[in-house]
Specification:
- With about 140 residues, the protein is α+β, with helices and mostly antiparallel strands.
- The chain is built from 3 helices and 6 strands.
- It has a 6-stranded mixed beta sheet with strand order 2-1-6-5-4-3.
- Strand 3 and strand 4 form a beta hairpin.
- The model has no long low-confidence stretch (mean pLDDT about 95).
């Protein structure tokens, strides 16, 4: 009897997520999401579901309008054993253009966030994201 070991190739899903951050968010190009997410993609943002790739791209575009010169700085990204889940911590920097309903005054802003992604067959399927919105709101409204 031979001892045959089967090599299992684990996808580099962390690299996929980081490419998404760079090619969509840092390039300010919501349309590039087509290359990364499935058509029935879901993002759950602070407990609210946004369903469908087109709605997701509209959500990205609206957010980019609220934070001019947005730069997403990747802090760390890692994946589980089979690449089906990816966790990513990041910081966003930019200029305020009305984020969180604030006066669009152009001042520098930054906030942190965490995203947990579901990945299937090399595509992003679901993103659970939380941002430090309360802390940003406090800084925007400080006297």
């Amino acid at each position: 009897m031979s001892n045959m070991t089967r090599e299992v190739t684990v996808p580099n899903s962390a690299e996929l997520v980081e490419s998404f951050w760079n090619e969509v968010w840092n390039a300010h190009n919501p349309a590039a999401a087509d290359d990364f997410v499935v058509e029935d993609f879901v993002i759950t943002n602070a407990g609210v579901r946004i369903e469908g790739r087109e709605n997701f791209k509209a959500w990205i575009g609206a957010f980019l309008e609220q934070v001019h010169d947005l730069e997403l700085e990747i802090v760390e990204t890692f994946q589980n054993h089979d690449g089906s889940r990816v966790a990513s911590r990041w910081n966003v920097h930019g200029r305020n253009n009305g984020v969180l309903g604030s006066e669009p005054d152009g001042r520098p802003i930054s906030f942190s966030g965490t995203a947990v992604w579901e990945v299937q067959d090399g595509k992003l399927v679901h993103n659970h994201v939380e941002r430090a919105s309360y802390e940003l709101h406090q800084r925007l409204n400080a006297a």
